[in-house]
Amino acid sequence: MLTKTDPVDLTGFSVPGRGNGILDVFRRRYLLRLLVRKGVSTRYRNSALGWGWSYVKPLTQYFIYFFVMGIVLGRNNGIDNFAVYLLSGIIVVNLFNEAFSNATKSIVDNKALVKKIYLPREMFPIAAVIVAFVHFLPQVAVLVVVSSLVGWVPSLLELGAILLGALIVILFATGLGLIFGAVNVSYRDAQNLVEIIKMLATWGSPVLYSYDLIARVLPDWLQTLYMMNPLTSAVELFHYGFWFSTTDGGLQPPPNLVRDSLIGLLIVLAITAIGQLVFRRFERRFAQDL
């Protein structure tokens, strides 16, 4: 029998509820796969079109923008293959908006699991981002078909630009999702702020217009900040990857696209690190606030 003075051997035990954050998520890939599979399989459950909605919704959005911006406002006359230009920008913003929005709601939507068992809480926003990426792939398939119809034959450099653009968006949505997902547990106003950010993402990046229009109205220093916006870099990388080679060279890629893209990548890596710190700070209150 142990007495009050006898030491207790805690070898082999770990303090419950503590972990290594994002690193633990990828150490428990089986749980991550389960959450992703659940998110994908329940997305369109009991719907007639099912995965067809992954095509219908973005295409509907595309045709509205194409009619308003391309035909009514005449932007299709100033940009060669405006259909490819517009679609390649829209799917980037759609990926960010869906991943960011879903990650913000992920903790609250999984409150039953959060309150009952311990697992790395970061797993929920990361799984939400991966699910958004899965839904992004059918949109890429449509873009590939449309681009191929106008003569797109990708080079290794263009494929690298596409992959870098997707990586920037995924990391950006993950970092912001960690921050807003954690804050949203205690302050549900976060979801309203996310809607504002999503609107700014659509209009604050060169999706519905070309970047050179911004250069005409902004001073040089503000234009530089605009081009360093990670979403701007990602959109322009997709334009370079899918659209630029199909044109006659009228509108050139941004002059400092490589520099701005690398800066954007550093920014999203910093945001992801900050997101992890904020998430860990709020995490201790999740169970009681839910």
List the topology elements.
Elements: H1 22-27, H2 29-43, H3 53-72, H4 82-109, H5 111-116, H6 123-149, H7 156-186, H8 189-203, H9 211-217, H10 220-228, H11 230-243, H12 257-283, H13 286-289
Helix pairs in contact: 2-6, 3-4, 4-6, 4-7, 4-8, 4-11, 6-7, 7-8, 7-11, 7-12, 11-12
Can I get a quick summary?
The protein is mainly alpha-helical.
The ordered H/E elements are: HHHHHHHHHHHHH
**Total beta-strand segments:** 0
Number of separate structural domains: 1
**Mean pLDDT over all positions:** 83
Describe the largest sheet: none
**H/I helix tally:** 13
Q: So what's the oligomer here?
A: single chain
- Report Rg: 22 Å
Low-confidence stretches: none
* Helix content bin: over 70%
C-alpha end-to-end distance:
41 Å
Strand portion? under 5%
Backbone shape: globular
SSE class? mainly alpha
Keywords: Antibiotic resistance, Cell inner membrane, Cell membrane, Membrane, Transmembrane, Transmembrane helix, Transport
Family: Belongs to the ABC-2 integral membrane protein family.
Organism: Cryobacterium psychrotolerans
GO molecular function: ABC-type transporter activity
What would you note in describing this structure?
By secondary structure, the protein is mainly α. It has one domain. It is built from 13 helices and no strands. α4 runs antiparallel to α6 and α4 packs parallel to α7. The mean pLDDT is 83. This is Transport permease protein. One of its GO terms (biological process) is response to antibiotic.
